[in-house]
Amino acid sequence: MGEVATIEQDPGLPVAGSENPITPMGLIEKAIAQGASVEQVSQLLELQERWDANQARKEFDAAIASAKAEIPTIAKTRTVNFTSSKGRTHYRHEDLAEIARVVTPILAKHGLSYRFRTSSPPNEPVTVTCIISHRAGHSEENTLAAGRDESGNKNSIQGVGSTITYLQRYTLKSALGLAAGEDDDGQSAEQGQPITDEQRDELLTLVGDTNTDIEAFCKYMQVESLSDLPGSKFNQAKSALNAKKKREAVQ
Question: How wide is the angle at C-alpha 241 spanned by C-alphas 236 and 242, nearest 5°?
Answer without folding.
Answer: 95
